[in-house]
Structure formats: structure tokens, C-alpha cells
């Protein structure tokens, strides 16, 4: 029987750089072979550069709720009016095959994964260097977004920053290269 895989959960507020860190981590050939990136379900509209099945599985609200009721979703959240969730079947299959999975989740999802897989999960919270930097990142990323939504993202980010104590590790993403090295160090220690 194969050794059971592990789950790496990366969380942080919008604009903290969690997705960028995940993608940079997977640029290391040795880690890219070991990890499987989970593609989440979402009900939000597709952005211009995103592709269905690569970035997200874009679903209608009714389809998401049907999957939720059928217990096909391991963890889920509603963020800024849209649903996001992780496929239960995908995660189970990868773990059974001894693979490691990377998930970018909010606190609720991270805690659920930690509760369901206490021996097989490692949680990392990505902190911005400051609220001012976070505001700049959100504004840059959301140039076409209404000011009200940017303000909502910032309010949510402030709340999320208080949750970092629930994680196994925290990384301050002030310098991307340094943050990637720190993430890689944690992964090499924990995931082998």
C-alpha cells in the first residue's frame, strides 16, 4: 500500500501573495513532480486570462449547491458573494496515491482540512509586510473594481490577519524571493 500523501494549505488575505508563492514553489522541478495543484470550484465570473479547468472550475450557483448537497465538496466558503470549494474526490484520490496537494484556502477551509487530516496537513499563513502595502496590492490588482469592493476586501483582510495564530507557520511576504525560500524550507522539512 502506498504511503498516504500530505496536504499543504496556504492562506492569507487577498493581495498577500499566496497564489504567487504557490506558483513560484511549483517552479522547482523537484517539488513540481511531488505536488499536485488542486483546482477549486467557484461561482465567480471568469477573468480574462483564466481558463476553466486550469485556474478554476467555473460553476453556476445551482451546480455548486448540488455538489455541496451531494457531499462532493470537502470544504467551501462564500467570499464577496461567490462560492469557492475543493473537490472531496480529487483530494481523497491524491492522498490515497501518496501525492502531496497544495490548497489555497481561507481560515475556515484550512481549519476543516486540519481537523479532517490532522497528521497529513501543514498550514501556512502568508502575511503582507504592512496594511499599506496590502492596500496598494489590492488596488493594483483590482483596478477595474469598484471602490466599495476594494474597501470590503481590506476590511476582510484586517479580520483575516488576526487568524494567523491558528496556523502551523507564518511567512511575511515582504520580499518575494525570500518568502519563496522560506516556503520551500518549510515544505522540505514537513512534506517528506
Q: What would your notes on this structure say?
A:
The chain is α/β, with parallel strands linked by helices. It has one domain (7-190): P-loop containing nucleotide triphosphate hydrolases (Rossmann fold). It has eight helices and nine strands. The protein has helices at residues 18-25, 29-34, 61-69, 88-96, 107-116, 131-141, 147-161, 176-190; strands spanning 7-11, 35-37, 41-42, 57-58, 73-79, 82-87, 100-104, 121-127, 169-172. A five-stranded parallel beta sheet has the order 2-7-1-8-9, with helices on both faces. The protein has a four-stranded mixed beta sheet with strand order 4-3-6-5. α1 (18-25) crosses α8 and α6 runs antiparallel to α7 (147-161). The model has no long low-confidence stretch (mean pLDDT 88).
Could you outline the blueprint of secondary structure elements for this entry?
Blueprint: E1 7-11, H1 18-25, H2 29-34, E2 35-37, E3 41-42, E4 57-58, H3 61-69, E5 73-79, E6 82-87, H4 88-96, E7 100-104, H5 107-116, E8 121-127, H6 131-141, H7 147-161, E9 169-172, H8 176-190
Parallel strand pairs: 1-7, 1-8, 2-7, 3-4, 8-9
Antiparallel strand pairs: 3-6, 5-6
Helix pairs in contact: 1-8, 6-7
Please give the share of residues in helix.
40-55%
Q: Rg to the nearest angstrom?
A: 16 Å
CATH architecture: 3-Layer(aba) Sandwich
Number of domains: 1
Task: Spell out the CATH superfamily.
Answer: P-loop containing nucleotide triphosphate hydrolases
- Main β-sheet, spatial strand arrangement: 2-7-1-8-9
The low-pLDDT segments are none
What is the class in the CATH system? Alpha Beta
Mean pLDDT: 88
What is the CATH T-level topology? Rossmann fold
Strand content: 15-25%
Structural class comes to alpha/beta
| General shape | globular
- Number of H/I helices: 8
The CA-CA distance between the termini, in Å, is 17 Å
Amino acid at each position: 500500500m502506498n504511503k498516504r500523501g500530505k496536504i499543504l494549505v496556504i492562506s492569507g488575505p487577498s493581495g498577500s501573495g499566496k497564489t504567487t508563492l504557490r506558483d513560484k514553489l511549483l517552479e522547482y522541478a523537484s517539488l513540481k513532480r511531488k505536488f499536485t495543484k488542486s483546482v477549486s470550484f467557484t461561482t465567480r465570473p471568469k477573468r480574462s486570462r483564466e481558463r476553466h479547468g486550469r485556474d478554476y472550475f467555473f460553476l453556476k450557483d445551482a451546480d455548486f449547491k448540488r455538489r455541496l448537497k451531494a457531499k462532493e465538496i470537502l470544504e467551501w466558503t462564500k467570499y464577496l458573494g461567490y462560492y469557492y470549494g475543493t473537490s472531496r474526490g480529487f483530494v481523497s484520490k491524491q492522498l490515497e496515491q501518496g501525492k502531496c496537494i497544495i490548497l489555497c484556502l481561507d481560515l475556515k477551509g484550512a481549519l476543516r482540512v486540519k481537523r479532517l487530516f490532522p497528521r497529513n496537513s501543514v498550514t501556512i499563513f502568508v502575511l503582507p509586510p504592512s496594511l499599506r502595502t496590502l492596500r496598494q496590492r489590492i488596488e493594483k490588482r483590482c483596478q477595474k473594481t469598484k471602490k466599495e469592493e476594494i474597501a470590503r476586501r481590506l476590511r476582510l483582510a484586517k479580520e483575516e490577519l488576526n487568524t494567523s495564530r491558528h496556523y502551523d507557520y507564518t511567512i511575511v511576504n515582504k520580499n518575494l524571493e525570500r518568502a519563496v525560500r522560506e516556503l520551500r524550507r518549510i515544505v522540505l522539512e514537513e512534506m517528506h
